[in-house]
């Protein structure tokens, strides 16, 4: 496969998101610009300017109409995807590290940083998916994380729970309506922050990536750890591929240590693991720095990775990827086919 | 592509002038349909220096139908905005480039395969050869580099006259020393071209040997390949018999179609023999493959 290199950013990438149809890629970096690209050929559709600080996070609503971004300038902004216009700005006391729309796009959660005497919080905002509509200033819900600040968070299926990953390596489950804490489990090593949390397509389970060099597949309902993927380097991001039972992990040694080692030893590769068998099945090289974010195309045709080197690399899988199957999987498929014919 | 467009962007901006010149003394653009389905477009224009320039382009039109989600199709018609507002249609050169091809084939034992490549025999041989070597000073025979020798300023290297010692000190094989000595005794520091250096013969032979080996022993020549064939397809077909180290499919430079022959190199000759027997006469894309061992180029 020939990756497409997107060089629209001047600083390290922080997050990449595909829209649900898989035709647009949104990328944000520390250089204060949001870029949107066509995934099939890497053509840039436009940029969204307005943030005054590093942008940490981005999310797109299910209808691909509006875009939410959270930045170190202590704001969450809403954008019109088509024109690049800023629709709404919410101000917060500290930086915003994560935003995510719920399944129907009516609610937006934001994770704010713990700093300057403010505790880390998870806020929920009511959003109208309409470019013309007036957005409300009121926060629908505020969850204060007084034990360990949340680094990532997301909405489970039916917006039933809010799941948060914490700096101390634990995950919490909050009620999606009231914000009450239901469970808190340490799943990663103590004080190894959780760096990413991405959902499966139906949002019944999710994958977490942590600096403790592992990624875990966790059920949203009871926070049971279903699978563990062990890597040899701190992880910054993990994603679940649709259609095929794989997960992609991205990481690499910390950016501050990069200059002291060779690229080969930096482990700046996207690692593919089999979702069920937990085996590593391959790696994709290319970045010159650690991978800060990986995102799988919701249509299952490819994935994109963003690195500390400022590049987004968009990969479209070729045949070998689709053909790969474990012997047991192949046997089962043959058996099912035989049963179907009989 | 540019069928109606008479002017290249590189033409003079003064439209009036160029139109007058092009209409008066330039032959009209020509379009010729080639046999292989491509089109040759010949255009004439006057450049900045007043010279007549003929541009010949060979273009191949490929119509590819794709079924798209209507929402996706609608978004493709959106106008660009922000920093990309002034970009033309299609990916802009400054933001989008295509990287080099990465071979990514998921595999259960990918780690072992990767290790095999890392330990290729040449690197291993070099390591073995250097295992017992020690750093030796030319001045005092101590275990340090000559440049670090404490006696460097006070003593001349031992065996200044005898080149053999010098060479031995450098950690070369004795034969090398002898050869250098023979080539020019007394001229210790003089340059010896790589071809004349001791051991060069052996080195060269090994290099040649390696390629010869590849071509002679484990490379198959496949002919009567369909012009629609892709390298990946061939690789898939031939990998069934063993590890394929190289697939070369000759392609036409202009049209991108296969020329009808390919070379497949195996890591192991036995695999190549197997593949040769099995694949000769194999039906692939409406043609019957002919597979034989490749002959040496000379």
UniProtKB/TrEMBL annotation, chain A:
Signal peptide: none
GO CC entries: eukaryotic 43S preinitiation complex; eukaryotic 48S preinitiation complex; eukaryotic translation initiation factor 3 complex, eIF3m
Tagged with keyword Cytoplasm: yes
Matches recorded under InterPro entries: eIF3i (IPR027525), WD40/YVTN_repeat-like_dom_sf (IPR015943), WD40_repeat_CS (IPR019775), WD40_repeat_dom_sf (IPR036322), WD40_rpt (IPR001680)
Pfam families per UniProt: EIF3I
WD repeat coordinates: 6-47, 48-89
CDD domains found in the cross-reference section: WD40 (cd00200)
Descriptive protein name: Eukaryotic translation initiation factor 3 subunit I
Lineage of producing organism: Eukaryota, Fungi, Dikarya, Ascomycota, Pezizomycotina
Gene: TIF34
Automatic annotation (TrEMBL), chain B:
SMART domains linked to this entry: RRM
Molecular function terms from GO: RNA binding; translation initiation factor activity
Function as written in the Swiss-Prot or TrEMBL entry: RNA-binding component of the eukaryotic translation initiation factor 3 (eIF-3) complex, which is involved in protein synthesis of a specialized repertoire of mRNAs and, together with other initiation factors, stimulates binding of mRNA and methionyl-tRNAi to the 40S ribosome. The eIF-3 complex specifically targets and initiates translation of a subset of mRNAs involved in cell proliferation. This subunit can bind 18S rRNA.
GO (cellular component) term, any one: eukaryotic 43S preinitiation complex
RRM domain ranges (all copies): 218-296
Keyword annotations of the record: Cytoplasm, Initiation factor, Protein biosynthesis, RNA-binding
Region annotated Disordered, chain positions: 1-37
Coiled coil location: none
Protein name: Eukaryotic translation initiation factor 3 subunit G
InterPro entries referenced in this protein's UniProt entry, alphabetically: eIF3_g (IPR017334), eIF3g_N (IPR024675), eIF3G_RRM (IPR034240), Nucleotide-bd_a/b_plait_sf (IPR012677), RBD_domain_sf (IPR035979), RRM_dom (IPR000504)
Keyword RNA-binding: yes
Gene Ontology annotations of biological process type: formation of cytoplasmic translation initiation complex
Subunit structure: Component of the eukaryotic translation initiation factor 3 (eIF-3) complex.
Taxonomic lineage of the native organism: Eukaryota, Fungi, Dikarya, Ascomycota, Pezizomycotina
Cell compartment(s), UniProt: Cytoplasm
Family: Belongs to the eIF-3 subunit G family.
Pfam families: eIF3g (PF12353), RRM_1 (PF00076)
């Amino acid at each position: 496969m020939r990756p497409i290199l997107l060089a629209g950013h001047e600083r390290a990438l922080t997050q990449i998101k595909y829209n649900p149809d898989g035709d647009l890629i949104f990328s944000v970096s520390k250089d204060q610009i949001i870029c949107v690209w066509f995934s099939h050929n890497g053509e840039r559709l436009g940029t969204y300017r307005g943030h005054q600080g590093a942008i940490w996070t981005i999310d797109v609503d299910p209808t691909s109409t509006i875009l939410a971004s959270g930045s170190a300038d202590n704001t969450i902004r809403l954008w019109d995807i088509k024109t690049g216009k800023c629709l709404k700005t919410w101000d917060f006391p500290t930086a915003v590290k994560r935003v995510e729309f719920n399944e129907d796009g009516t609610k937006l959660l934001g994770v704010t940083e713990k700093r300057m005497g403010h505790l880390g919080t998870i806020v929920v905002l009511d959003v109208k998916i309409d470019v013309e509509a007036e957005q409300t200033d009121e926060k629908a819900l505020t969850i204060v994380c007084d034990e360990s600040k949340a680094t990532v968070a997301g909405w489970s299926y039916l917006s039933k729970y809010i799941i948060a990953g914490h700096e101390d390596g634990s995950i919490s489950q909050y009620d999606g309506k009231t914000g009450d804490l239901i469970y808190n489990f340490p799943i990663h090593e103590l004080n190894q922050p959780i760096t990413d949390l991405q959902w499966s397509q139906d949002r019944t389970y999710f994958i977490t990536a942590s600096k403790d060099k592992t990624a875990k597949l966790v059920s949203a309902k009871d926070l049971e750890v279903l699978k563990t993927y062990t890597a040899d380097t701190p992880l910054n991001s993990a994603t679940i591929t649709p259609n095929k039972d794989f997960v992609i992990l991205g990481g690499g040694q910390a950016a501050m240590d990069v200059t002291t080692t060779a690229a080969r030893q930096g482990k700046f590769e996207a690692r593919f693991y089999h979702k069920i068998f937990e085996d590593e099945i391959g790696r994709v090289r290319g970045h010159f720095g650690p991978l800060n974010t990986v995102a799988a195309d919701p249509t299952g045709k490819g994935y994109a990775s963003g690195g500390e080197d400022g590049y987004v690399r968009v990969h479209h899988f070729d045949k070998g990827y689709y053909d790969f199957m474990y012997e047991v999987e192949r046997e089962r498929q043959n058996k099912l086919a035989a049963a179907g014919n009989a | 592509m540019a069928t109606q467009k008479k002017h290249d962007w590189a033409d003079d901006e003064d439209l009036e002038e160029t139109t007058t010149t092009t209409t008066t003394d330039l032959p009209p653009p020509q379009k010729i349909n080639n046999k292989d389905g491509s089109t040759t477009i010949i255009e004439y224009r006057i450049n900045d220096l007043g010279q007549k320039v003929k541009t010949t382009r060979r273009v191949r039109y490929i119509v590819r139908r794709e079924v798209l989600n209507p929402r996706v199709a609608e978004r493709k018609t959106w106008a660009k905005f922000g920093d990309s507002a002034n970009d033309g249609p299609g990916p802009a050169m400054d933001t989008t480039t295509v990287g080099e091809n990465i071979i990514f084939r998921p595999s259960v034992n990918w780690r072992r395969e990767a290790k095999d490549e890392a330990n290729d025999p040449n690197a291993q041989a070099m390591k073995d050869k250097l295992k017992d070597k020690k750093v030796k000073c030319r001045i005092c025979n101590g275990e340090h580099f000559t440049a670090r020798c404490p006696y460097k300023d006070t003593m001349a290297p031992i065996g200044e006259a005898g080149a053999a010692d010098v060479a031995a000190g450098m950690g070369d094989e004795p034969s090398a020393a002898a050869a250098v000595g023979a080539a020019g005794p007394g001229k210790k520091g003089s340059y010896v071209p790589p071809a004349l250096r001791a051991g060069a013969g052996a080195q060269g032979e090994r290099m040649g040997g390696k390629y010869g080996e590849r071509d002679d022993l484990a490379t198959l020549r496949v002919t009567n390949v369909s012009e629609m064939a892709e390298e990946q397809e061939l690789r898939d077909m031939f990998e069934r018999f063993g590890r394929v180290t190289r697939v070369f499919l000759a392609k036409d430079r202009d049209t991108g179609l296969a020329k009808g022959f390919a070379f497949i190199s195996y890591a192991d000759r036995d695999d190549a023999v197997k593949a040769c027997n099995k694949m000769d006469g194999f039906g692939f894309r409406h043609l019957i493959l002919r597979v034989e061992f490749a002959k040496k180029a000379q």
